[in-house]
Amino acid sequence: MPQLARRMGRAKPSAIMAVAEKAKALKAAGRDIISFSIGVPNFLPGPHVYAAVREALDKDSGQYGSNRGSDALLDAFLKHAEAVGLGGYARKNVSTGIGAKHVLYNLAEALLDEGDTIAYAVPYWTTYADIADICNAKRLELPCPASQNYKLTPAQLDAALATKPKIFVFNNPNNPTGMAYTQAEIEALAAVVVKHPDTWIICDDIYNRMVFDGIGYHNFMHSQPSLRDRTVFVDSLSKTYGMPGWRVGFMLGPETVAQAVTVLNSNHITNIPEVITAAAVAALTGPQDIPARKCAEFQAKRDQVMAVMDAIPGLVCPKPEGAFYVFPDVSFAFGKRHGDLAIGNDVELCNALLEAKGVACVPGSAFGAPRALRISYTCPTAQLPEGLRRFQEFFAELQ
To answer: Which residues of the chain does CATH 3.90.1150.10 include?
Structure first.
């Protein structure tokens, strides 16, 4: 019989969704499960978003829309970007997609030929490696362990860019670690980037409105405006506005890149649906109190989680400054046991934690860092203390 395309041998299902599905199945079977696994913000957008949707339904034309995105949506995103210091762009510099993941895939198709290299720091968001493999690109992974606070150094970046990768993807604040770069750190990295003109820069910064401790969001282009000619900023409604299932992503960058992504949209999706567009415009232009309040809540939850991480002997966990993740190095537990369950690696540890305590976390190997695991602390506020208690109890019981 005919065979699947060879690229399907390189495509992998999401490891994060696999954990979430297992936790869901256990919960359906009657287990008391607390999930620290999937990275959803677990809040809903404001009532103005739903009001816009109802109005759009009443006025729905049923027609095709723009491959790039409606003018109203493009203008709303341009103002949104200007608020984080990325002004001076026009509609021709923007394109949209079915979530940031789709935008990233389109960017890979637009910028990478087979055999080209894509560089990024480790730990990394799983999509970077997956897209590289599907596109048959080479991966240049830059290890950033807990000992350097999971952050890329200028020396590392300089050595990597000297090899002239086609794309460098930078994620700030970072998923899975939650680490955010200070202004000084970004300025030091930007000074390196500007020395290497042969590489496209993709700033995957969808958590840019979720930064804690007053450090602010910083982008390479803030200190090196000349990088605008080859830098793409990627954003999304998913995290900031509690709209992951609505699937709206954006890119802002050079006109040639935005046009390329728009052409790919014309072949892939045609357009973002009219009703979804109305919701997106309302989220971007309406009251911003919910995102601001949720950022403060996530910072408070971060502090709760870190208090437990710091209390577990042997566990190492740099304090994150953004997003809603912590990424503890749990390798001290490898070689130990929890009851009858042996723990030889991060996957076995997460399985044991789920089986013994009903707490679901994602193994760090999903993010290229098998010494760690990821905790997403967006579960309902009432569940967080109990989940953390079980987590701490699990490690106290290791032998």
So the answer is: 6-44+290-396
Residue-level pLDDT, tens digit, the chain, 399 residues: 898 888 888 777 766 667 777 778 877 888 888 999 888 899 999 999 999 999 999 999 889 999 999 999 999 999 999 999 999 999 999 999 999 999 999 999 999 999 999 999 999 999 999 999 999 999 999 999 999 999 999 999 999 999 999 999 999 999 999 999 999 999 999 999 999 999 999 999 999 999 999 999 999 999 999 999 999 999 999 999 999 999 999 999 999 999 999 999 999 999 999 999 999 999 999 999 999 999 999 999 999 999 999 999 999 999 999 999 999 999 999 999 999 999 999 999 999 999 999 999 999 999 999 999 999 999 999 999 999 999 999 999 999
The topology (CATH level 3) of 47-285 is Aspartate Aminotransferase; domain 2 (3.40.640)
Question: What are the start and end residues of each CATH 3.40.640.10 domain in the chain?
Answer: 47-285
Q: In this structure, which CATH number among 3.90.1150.10, 3.40.50.1240, 3.40.50.150, 1.10.4160.10 belongs to the domain 6-44+290-396?
A: 3.90.1150.10
The secondary structure of the chain, three-state, reads CCCCCHHHHCCCCCHHHHHHHHHHHHHHCCCCCEECCCCCCCCCCCHHHHHHHHHHHHCCCCCCCCCCCCHHHHHHHHHHHHCCCCCCCCHHHEEEECCHHHHHHHHHHHHCCCCCEEEEEECCCHHHHHHHHHCCCEEEEEECCHHHCCCCCHHHHHHHHCCCCCEEEEECCCCCCCCCCCHHHHHHHHHHHCCCCCCEEEEECCCCCCECCCCCCCCHHHHCHHHHHHEEEEEECCCCCCCHHHCCEEEECCHHHHHHHHHHHHHHCCCCCHHHHHHHHHHHHCCCHHHHHHHHHHHHHHHHHHHHHHHCCCCECCCCCECCEECCECHHHCCEEECCEEECCHHHHHHHHHHHHCEECEEHHHHCCCCEEEEECCCCHHHHHHHHHHHHHHHHCCC
